[in-house]
Design goal:
Blueprint lengths: L1 H31 L17 H12 L3 H12 L2 E6 L2 E6 L2 H10 L4 E2 L1 H12 L8 H11 L5 H5 L2 H11 L9 E2 H18 L1 H5 L7 H23 L8 H30 L5 H9 L3 H8 L3 H15 L2 H14 L2 H11 L10 H6 L2 H13 L5 E6 L3 E7 L5 E5 L4 E5 H4 L3 H4 L34 H18 E6 L7 E3 L3 E3 L4 E6 L1
Parallel strand pairs: 2-8
Antiparallel strand pairs: 1-2, 3-5, 4-12, 5-8, 6-7, 9-12, 10-11
Helix pairs in contact: 2-3, 5-11, 8-9, 8-22, 9-15, 9-16, 11-12, 12-14, 12-15, 14-15, 16-19, 16-22, 17-22
């Protein structure tokens, strides 16, 4: 018994010494760089910060966590510190800090320590889960597929949109556009990722195997999300529950990879004119593009799964949110329709360039992304001891010392509602504000920023523009059929928990 007590006391002393040494080291380093600590959230639970976490959970259940967290910046300023399960997290919307973390000192910050432990069993090492040389290699594999020539070709997407438009009621009845749009972009995302190999296995998501894959993929996403939420307690989730979904998803993707590699090997044995080879490489799926660069099945599978995560909701959420806003602003819809009718999407070429000429449409999308960012929050982690330039002390004019492992919470929703940048009427949908404002790249970040900005942003904007133009050309009116306000439901992206219930009036 005496031995046990002595061992416990020794362990306690070691822990106390470690905490003291760490605090002393942090203080000494902060002084060396002329740093001051930031303002801290006033916690009731000083040890673990559970009071704030419980408030966030309660707000999330009411789909109010996004504005709740944004309001904290009005109370504590553009940069402050919170306690998350006993560890300090810096929250910031200060443009100088964002530029430092995402660009100037980008190599000091990353995602791997906070993403890879939870995500590696399902989607391995890829452009979402890694940093440094591994991330660069992954990004290089993706680059050909997201070239301008490839994303500018909307021919296959046009056919999918035509089919989608046939599903919209023409009798003025209420329809929730959110699931219809989500279905459209789920199918196009899968086609873009898997291409012809999917057709061999049974069509665009219609075969039994493809449906099983989608279910397994979503279950895997839920499992990873739950693991993120409960952190160190993820071991309480039986591994078998997650592994079953992982295995089903892997089996389906592996079969697609086999088809792509088989087609590549067959093509190697044939002679093609140079101009045909160039044409073939211009427009292809992500899987085909990866198969042309590597035979590593695991590497290809990881990129496909992570591509699916990045592609599944981005454009559909943007269009749903924009239609939600337009339905409550009929005068804006009428102006947008007048502009859209000025071009003929069926004959105007090149289509991608013509869409960019629609200036009012561009402002509508900018304003939609300002009001409801697709990615409201992004969290990075310090890969080494570093600093942020502003936010220290009560006056917030000193740099902040950041020990390795500190998390940085960037709130894009709060960033896009800064009145000094976007004018006092930040809660009002007003595309015309973009005629008189010019936010900097670190004041408006709809697709994040720096080297790790969203690789799909140009494709997402092109597809959203085309879809909206086709809708407003076909329907002369868009009426809101839901009095509920926008309520952010957080997943990888944030979508309206109340959907997009509208009525469309045919021209």
């Amino acid at each position: 018994m005496t031995y046990i007590v002595a061992s416990l006391l020794a362990g306690l002393l070691v822990a106390v010494f470690y905490c003291f040494q760490r605090t002393w080291s942090k203080t000494a380093s902060a002084r060396q760089f002329g740093c001051q600590p930031p303002v801290s959230y006033r916690h009731l639970d000083l040890l673990f910060g559970l009071d704030l976490k419980l408030q966030e959970v309660r707000q999330a259940l009411k789909f109010r966590s996004i504005p709740f967290n944004a309001a904290l910046f009005k109370k504590y300023g553009k940069t402050f510190q919170v306690n998350v399960f006993g560890s300090a997290t810096i929250r910031t919307i200060d443009s100088e800090n964002l530029q430092t973390a995402y660009a100037t000192n980008n190599k000091d910050w990353g995602y791997e320590p906070i993403r890879l432990p939870f995500m590696e069993p399902f989607c391995g090492r890829g452009f979402i889960t890694t940093d440094g040389a591994t991330w660069k290699a992954s990004r290089a594999l993706l680059r050909p597929t997201f070239s301008k020539a490839n994303i500018s070709d909307l021919s296959a997407f046009q056919r999918s949109v035509d089919s989608f438009l046939q599903q919209i009621p023409r009798d003025g009845s209420t329809v929730d556009m959110q699931p219809l749009i989500a279905s459209l972009f789920l199918q196009t995302a899968i086609k873009f990722l898997l291409g012809d190999s999917l057709d061999v296995l049974g069509g665009e998501g219609q075969s039994g195997d493809a449906k099983d894959f989608l279910k397994a993929f979503h279950n895997s996403m839920i499992g990873m999300g739950l693991s993120f939420m409960i952190g160190p307690f993820q071991l309480l989730i039986p591994k078998a529950l997650k592994a079953t979904a992982w295995q089903k998803a892997h089996t389906f993707i592996d079969a697609c990879i086999d088809v792509a590699l088989h087609d590549k090997n067959q093509a190697r044995g044939k002679d093609f004119p140079d101009n045909q080879m160039e044409s073939d490489s211009r427009s292809h799926s992500l899987l085909e593009g990866l198969a042309k660069q590597t035979d590593d099945r695991i590497a290809i599978r990881n990129q496909i799964l992570q591509g699916m995560m990045a592609a599944q909701d981005t454009t559909s959420v943007l269009i749903s949110n924009t239609m939600f806003l337009l339905s409550r602003n009929p005068a804006t819809y009428e102006r947008l329709r007048k502009e859209a009718l000025s071009i003929d999407l069926d004959v105007s070429l090149p289509l991608f360039d013509n869409l960019k000429e629609l200036k009012f449409l561009s402002n509508v999308l900018k304003e939609s992304l300002r009001m409801y960012p697709i990615f409201p929050v992004l969290v990075r982690v310090a890969l080494k001891d570093t600093t942020l330039p502003v936010g220290g002390s009560e006056k917030r004019d000193f740099p902040i010392y950041i020990p390795r492992g500190t998390k940085l919470y960037s709130d894009y929703y709060a960033l896009h509602h800064v009145e000094s940048v976007f004018r006092p009427d930040v809660e009002v949908f007003n595309p015309d504000r973009w005629h008189s404002i010019s936010p900097g790249p670190w004041e408006y970040m709809p697709f994040s920023g720096g080297p790790r900005a969203c690789v799909r942003q140009h494709k997402a904007l092109a597809e959203a523009s085309y879809t909206l133009v086709k809708i407003v050309q076909l329907f002369k009116g868009l009426e809101s059929r839901d009095e509920k306000e926008w309520a952010g439901q957080m997943k990888l992206t944030a979508r309206n928990a109340n959907g997009c219930k509208v009525a469309l009036i045919p021209a």
